[in-house]
Design goal:
The protein has 432 residues and is mainly alpha-helical. The chain has a three-stranded antiparallel sheet. Helix 7 packs parallel to helix 8. Helix content is 49%, strand content 6%. The structure holds s-citryldethia Coenzyme A.
Length: 432
């Protein structure tokens, strides 16, 4: 369906702009010719109404609370799928047949080890360094070890770098955790699947056999699936922008990790659990709700609200269910933080402020409770988010690199600074 064009009138001049429809969701107005035709830029600092690219990977309908990966609903992928087939789907656009999945798993599995010298990187960090700081450094350093897969013009090297990143992120994350707690690194085990291998590398010790709990491994796998990709979020946009300059994929993923760390983005799961701890008891909830509504108080309910979802984040519902499963499996009857979270959600969803502003729990609201129950410290929560999101970053980076129309991203600005003025010699200057 060709929606044709739309006309923008400005200063007596008409600018005819093409309108493109998507498979689903909002159409886009192509403003590529706007500056040439009107001498004006568009202005949308938070990109609230701006599509930065075409993509066939993930679709979100924020009003309806819908999330699809290549057309498949997240609820079905989380219920019936495993993380590796979601990785395959995001990278290649289709669910793998058995032989394709087995080959993909074999290739990934045989990239899970890191260069032995990388372990020396960790000794340069303080033990109490935030694991996300370690991840930024070590992942960025991968390009110093894998020169044979940094030429992004070579499809084979792009594929190898992609496999290396997806496969090595869990290993590096587990190493960051082990280093943080002063325990020896545990090597990957090729007979374990992605999630079980990660749990093993994090929680096994050389002194005894670590038994994988299948319920916990399945919960870990579901958490990875829920965090795998999410359209053009801040960290994915960071990876795309870094990649648009031709930077190697290791450097681009390190940039994505840095952006994800922010508490408004992937850091919200750590912040949400810390917030529940700060609330401390259900009786204190009204005070924190009042603070969240107070314009003069910077406090926000972490794990609530979303740029796109103006309905319940579909991932949050699955995370809540997973939290109950994990706590049940571990025999944790009354987790005070879960009680506070459930009561907070109930109150917030009936409060006019949250209803009017369409603030619902997002994926980060319940993930922290689950991850804490699995045994991770809060400082590792965003690291786990990064482990899962690496496949989404890579899939989006791959889509951008393979786009024949791709060019370097270079936004413009609305200039509000000083007009041209002459240089003032030091003796003539007056401190301002
Ligand atoms: C993720 O983009 C993605 O897809 C991200 C993500 C992914 O998978 O990649 O989904 C992962 O980052 C989830 C979001 C995690 N962040 C948080 O939980 C932090 C708390 N949430 C807020 O900081 C906020 O909701 C954002 C950052 C998530 C979204 O912010 P927006 O879209 O810029 O909205 P806004 O800040 O302009 O808020 C709109 C209004 C404001 O009030 P007014 O200025 O209009 O009066 O709602 C208020 C805000 O003050 N508001 C909140 C609130 N979130 C927004 N008030 C209290 N508590 C909150 N959590």
């Amino acid at each position: 369906m060709d929606l044709g064009t739309t006309v923008l009138e400005m200063g007596g001049r008409q600018c005819i702009l093409d309108v493109h429809p998507g498979t689903m969701g909002p159409h886009v107005i192509d403003i590529g010719k706007l500056f040439d035709q009107t001498g004006a830029f568009t202005y949308d600092p938070g990109f609230t109404s701006t599509a930065s690219c075409k993509s066939a990977i993930t679709f979100i309908d924020g009003d309806a609370g819908i999330l699809l990966h290549c057309g498949y609903p997240i609820e079905q992928l989380a219920e019936h799928g495993d993380f590796l087939e979601v990785c395959y789907l995001l990278l290649y656009g289709e669910l793998p047949a058995r032989a394709q999945r087995d080959n993909f798993e074999y290739r990934l599995t045989h990239h899970t080890m890191v260069h032995e010298q990388m372990s020396r990187f960790f000794t340069g960090f303080r033990r109490d360094a935030h694991p996300m700081a370690v991840m930024c450094g070590v992942v960025g350093a991968l390009s110093a070890f894998y020169h044979d897969s940094t030429d992004i013009s070579d499809p084979y090297q792009r594929m190898v770098a992609s496999m290396r990143l997806i496969a090595k992120m869990p290993t590096i994350a587990a190493m960051a955790y082990k280093y943080h707690i002063g325990q020896p690194f545990i090597y990957p085990k090729n007979e374990l699947n992605f999630a079980a291998n990660f749990l093993h590398m994090c929680f096994a010790v050389p002194c005894e056999e670590y038994k994988i709990n299948p319920v916990l491994a399945r919960a870990m796998e579901r958490i990875f699936i829920l965090h795998a990709d999410h359209e053009q979020n801040a960290s994915t946009s960071t990876v795309r922008l870094a990649g648009s300059s031709g930077a190697n994929p290791f450097a681009c993923i390190a940039a994505g990790i840095a952006c994800l760390w922010g508490p408004a983005h992937g850091g919200a799961n750590e912040a949400a659990l810390n917030m529940l701890g700060e609330i401390g008891h259900v009786d204190n909830i009204p005070e924190f709700i009042a603070r969240a509504k107070d314009k003069n108080d910077p406090f926000r309910l972490m794990g609530f609200g979303h740029r796109v979802y103006k309905n319940y984040d579909p991932r949050a519902k699955i995370m809540q269910k997973t939290a109950h499963e994990v706590l049940g499996e571990l025999g944790i009857k009354d987790d005070p933080l879960l009680d506070i979270a459930m009561e907070l959600e109930k109150i917030a969803l009936t409060d006019s402020y949250f209803i009017e502003k369409k603030l619902y729990p997002n994926v980060d609201f319940y993930s922290g409770i689950t991850l804490k129950a699995l045994g991770f410290p809060t400082t590792m929560f965003t690291v786990l988010f990064a482990v899962a999101r690496t496949v989404g970053w890579i899939a989006q980076w791959k889509e951008m690199i393979e786009d024949p129309h791709q060019k370097i991203g270079r936004p413009r600005q609305l200039y509000t600074g000083a007009r041209r003025r002459e240089y003032v010699a030091m003796p003539d200057r007056v401190a301002t």
